[in-house]
Design brief:
Strands 1, 2, 3, 4, 5, 6, 7 and 8 form an 8-stranded mixed sheet that branches. The chain is α/β, with parallel strands linked by helices. The chain contains 13 helices and 8 strands. Helix 7 packs across helix 10. Helix 3 links the parallel strand 2 and strand 3. The chain folds into 2 domains: about 190 residues, Rossmann fold (3-Layer(aba) Sandwich), CATH 3.40.50.150; about 80 residues, Putative methyltransferase TM0872, insert domain (DNA polymerase, domain 1). Bound molecules: S-adenosylmethionine. The site of S-adenosylmethionine has 22 residues, from helix 2 and strand 2.
């Protein structure tokens, strides 16, 4: 099933695309956001995705909006250099809709979901280490840290120990094999969500270096936004949202404590040159949550770059 974009109207309302504007969609996916922006104004959209399989969706938009849409394969943490290859050095708006798409989750061969049996891969792009490499090669404490810090899994040490014991018998190569090891090591009463959820989240974040990408992506966005330009970010869990919140607060003079996830450049002491909207975050409406369950955990934040006085 194609990805159903979340909070589309809220994104358009906050991004407010303008004719002749240049917009960057840093997480193209199935192109729901890009298409909505292109329909809302006579603007150009540069769409980035690290997943080569999103090219199919890009080709549709290329023919629907000739000369106004450009798809770029890469990481949004490199957005400045990616768009500069097309002569673009300033953007009027940037959107980041973080995490994985429904296409990635639903395809068993991508290895993201413990619900479908597939190879334990979990890479959004087509290169780098797979989740199977990590669970079969990392030391016990390194695995425990991934589950604890990126999955917020309290039983992280127990799970890591069970993985090390299981892989001594046979390598862990499939999603269902790993999910079963996690479930058995947690044990206990049935829970509301599958006990493997948190460990899978932790591994996915680690394999795709998601937090590093967000940190660098925010820094890049800050550097390329034109005066008056807007940055809209949608997150899907509290760890992601915390990084974005600290960043937005620190850029607006609401300085919090030091965070290792907030780019150094924006820590206390820097002069703020962004505004926060009011309210500073939005969540999906009850109507949307009823029709698109993914939207239940979405949080949208936004920053507006100050206009420079003439
Ligand atoms: C939630 S989906 C975006 C859906 C999109 N807004 C739409 O309307 O179809 C996230 C997409 O972002 C991509 N992605 C995640 N992190 C990325 C990164 N650091 N750089 C580039 N693409 C990334 C994923 O591959 C995935 O296709």
């Amino acid at each position: 099933m194609d990805h159903k974009p979340v909070m589309l109207n809220e994104m358009l309302d906050w991004l407010a695309p303008k004719d002749k504007g240049v917009y960057i969609d840093g997480t193209f996916g199935a192109g729901g956001y890009s298409r909505a922006i292109l329909r809302a104004a006579d603007c150009r959209v540069f769409a980035i995705d690290r997943d080569p399989s999103t090219k199919t969706f890009a080709e549709r938009l290329e023919s629907e909006f000739p000369n106004r849409f450009i798809w770029l394969l890469g990481n949004f943490s490199d957005m400045c250099s990616l768009v500069s290859m097309h002569g673009v050095h300033e953007a009027n708006g940037i959107v980041l809709d973080l995490g994985v798409s429904s296409m990635q989750l639903d395809k068993a061969e991508r290895g993201f979901s413990f619900r479908n049996d597939g190879p334990l891969d979990m890479r959004m792009s087509s290169n780098g280490m797979t989740a199977s490499d990590a669970v079969n090669q990392y030391g016990e404490s390194e695995l425990a840290d991934i589950f604890y810090y990126y999955g917020e899994e309290k039983a992280a040490r127990r799970i890591a120990r069970a993985i090390v014991a299981a892989r001594a018998i046979t390598p862990i190569t499939s999603t269902t094999q790993l999910a079963e090891i996690v479930r058995q090591s947690i044990g206990g009463k049935p829970q509301k969500s599958d006990p493997a959820t948190r460990s899978f989240q932790g591994l996915r974040i680690h394999i795709n270096q998601e937090f590093e990408a967000i940190e660098n992506g925010l820094k890049e966005a800050e550097g390329i936004l034109a005066p008056g330009g807007r940055l809209v970010v949608v997150t899907f869990h509290s760890l992601e949202d915390r990084i974005v919140k600290r960043f937005t607060h620190s850029r607006c003079g609401k300085l919090g404590e030091h965070s290792r996830h907030v780019p150094e450049k924006v820590q206390a002491g820097d002069a703020p040159h962004f505004f926060l909207p009011k309210p500073e975050k939005r969540t999906a409406s009850a109507e949307e949550i009823a029709t698109n369950p993914r939207s239940r955990s979405a949080t949208m934040r936004m920053l507006i770059r100050e206009r420079v006085e003439a």
